[in-house]
């Protein structure tokens, strides 16, 4: 009888030990699961933070920025570069948009659409575009420059950039037309595409020289106010940009394009050539 009781007690002890071990294992598993959940939670928070405040990915769907950005390029946009939101003011240094920056912004006519273009004109400047010879003139304000109201005759007379380069100081087409000293001739070269942009000193207090009738597409003249920018596509002949729908607001700029992280040629039928490996991790300038 004693032997039977011992065996029963031993069996019960083994069962209790087994249950304790099982319980211990379950607790460990739960702890691991909790840790994993906590890790997943923090990872999700980091991803959300990066997505909304640091970087965001966009896909190029048109050829308006050829050859800098091709259709099928996946780009990384640095979102904290210009934004004025609360998080950026605390954690990041803000930068002013500069000429030549390639940016992603909300389309002025429809905020649900995102466009990518290059900044050409800055606040305080005057943009004059000649659609016939496709030349762009950027006039900067300069207090030392003599003002003349008939400066627009320069565009009517179709002055060429080469002529301006030959005259480094002052240039006159006739006794009535005066152009201020040239500050800089900016030759924009994007691979095989070359665009000529004249950047000259502006006209003193030029605000009153540009009435409302000049601030529109019909005359191809824009005076850029504070926090507004003039943008163009690199592929000028196939780009809808500020020439057609006007200036963009700084508050609508989402960020600056920094890198291409993937590029897919959707037209290629060869799967080995679909991915443009030579463009992966390319830095955008």
From TrEMBL:
The chain crosses the membrane at residues 6-25, 41-60. One of its GO terms (molecular function) is signal peptidase activity. This is Signal peptidase I. PROSITE patterns: SPASE_I_1 (PS00501), SPASE_I_2 (PS00760), SPASE_I_3 (PS00761). Keywords: Hydrolase, Membrane, Protease, Transmembrane, Transmembrane helix. Belongs to the peptidase S26 family. GO terms for biological process: signal peptide processing. It catalyses: Cleavage of hydrophobic, N-terminal signal or leader sequences from secreted and periplasmic proteins. It comes from Buchnera aphidicola subsp. Cinara cedri (strain Cc). NCBIfam families: sigpep_I_bact (TIGR02227). It is found in: Membrane.
């Amino acid at each position: 009888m004693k032997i039977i009781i011992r065996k029963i007690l031993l069996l019960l002890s083994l069962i209790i030990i087994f249950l304790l071990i099982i319980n211990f294992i379950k607790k460990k598993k739960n702890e691991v699961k909790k840790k994993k959940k906590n890790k997943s939670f923090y990872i999700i928070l980091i991803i959300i933070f990066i997505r909304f405040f640091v970087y965001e990915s966009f896909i190029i769907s048109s050829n308006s920025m050829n050859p800098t950005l091709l259709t099928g390029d996946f780009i990384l946009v640095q979102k904290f570069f210009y934004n004025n939101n609360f998080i950026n003011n605390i954690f990041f240094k803000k930068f002013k948009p500069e000429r030549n920056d390639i940016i992603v912004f909300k389309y002025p006519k429809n905020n649900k659409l995102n466009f990518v273009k290059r900044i050409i004109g800055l606040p305080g400047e005057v943009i004059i575009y000649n659609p016939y010879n496709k030349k762009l003139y950027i006039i900067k304000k300069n207090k030392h420059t003599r003002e003349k109201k008939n400066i627009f005759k320069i565009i009517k007379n179709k002055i060429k950039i080469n002529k301006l380069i030959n005259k480094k100081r002052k240039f006159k087409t006739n006794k009535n037309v005066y152009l201020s000293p040239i500050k800089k001739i900016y030759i924009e070269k994007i691979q095989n595409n070359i665009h000529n942009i004249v950047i000259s000193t502006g006209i003193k207090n030029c605000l009153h020289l540009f009435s409302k009738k000049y601030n529109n597409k019909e005359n191809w003249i824009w005076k850029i106010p504070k926090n507004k920018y003039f943008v163009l596509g690199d592929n000028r002949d196939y780009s809808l940009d500020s020439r057609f729908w006007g200036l963009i607001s700084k508050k609508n700029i989402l960020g600056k394009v920094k890198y291409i992280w993937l590029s897919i040629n959707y037209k290629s039928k060869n799967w080995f050539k679909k991915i443009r490996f030579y463009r992966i991790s390319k830095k955008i300038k």
